[in-house]
Amino acid sequence: MRTFGMRIKELRNDMNLNQTQLANLMGIAQTTIANYENDKRFPNQETLVAFSNIFNTSVDYLLGRFDSSDGFHQKYASLNASQKNRVYSEIADQYLDYLLKHQKYKALYLIANSLNEGLEAKDFYLKVFRKVLWQVGEMWERNEVTIAQEHYISNITQIALSNMFLHFDDSKKNHKVAISIAVNGDPHTLGARMISDYFELEGWNTYHLGGNLPIDQLINSIVTLKSDLLIISVTMPYYINTLENTIYALRKDKRLDKLKIIVGGKALDNHEEILNTLEIDGYGKDFDEAIKIANLLIQ
Fold first, then answer.
1. How high is the mean pLDDT of the chain?
2. How far apart are CA 80 and CA 83, in angstroms?
3. Which of 141, 187, 208, 213 is most exposed by smallest CB count within 10 Å?
4. How far apart are CA 24 and CA 103, in angstroms?
5. What gap in Å lies between CA 183 and CA 145, rounded to an integer?
6. Strand ranges for 98-199 from DSSP E
7. How far apart are CA 267 and CA 264, in angstroms?
8. Where are the domain boundaries for CATH 1.10.260.40 in the chain?
9. By the 8 A CB rule, do 9 and 62 touch?
10. pTM (2 d.p.)
11. Where in the chain is the domain with CATH 3.40.50.280?
12. 48 or 259, greater pLDDT
């Protein structure tokens, strides 16, 4: 019979964590992990539950009552929409708190475990990631976080987003193709990445090309990939002129006569006078509105 220590070690190895990394995640000493794995010590109830959450398994499995580690229940699955919204808000607050304390493993496992407990991947984009990134942006404007902290949070969120693909359902795919970019020069490309993922969750075939893409390569990509839609994100007002020049260049190319263009981003919020000057097909003030407009444009 496998002991508690043996099961902890197996689960740790399955997650490619060494003892020090697991100890940091738990907030305990590496020697304590070693003692657990060697069955020289046994954790209290609080630590046992922490192991269960980190390894996404049940306490019963850790204690040897079950031989399968897949018995973790979906504790959020039965909640109504209002209750789930409160949970998402709590997750967003905890995620940001972990990242402000540079506890990246705790932040990433918080997201992973929550997804396995009955929450939807799609809702994380608006109710967790977008909320956190907007909050960080506001904190930066108030000088409550540094540029370095903002970049750190964005980079860890990129990792979290990559893991979200494990929860996508590719059976819903349709024929529609979209490319997303951040306007050249704008250092904040995460919003464009997130809208690309959001469209992918809605069945679109998406290609996120990042930022600082030469216009000729963007046009070639649109033609080669037979893209129906281009989504352009701009987060800072300084780059509005670049956005205008990009759209002008795209509209001049006869190969792109059928291309639809949707724009969005914080720089355009509450600036209808700017939107009226752009040769675009729509403005998405949020992800859901962008999806709605895109599906109306591309049947």
1. 89
2. 5
3. 141
4. 9
5. 25
6. 177-182
7. 8
8. 4-62
9. no
10. 0.73
11. 170-297
12. 259
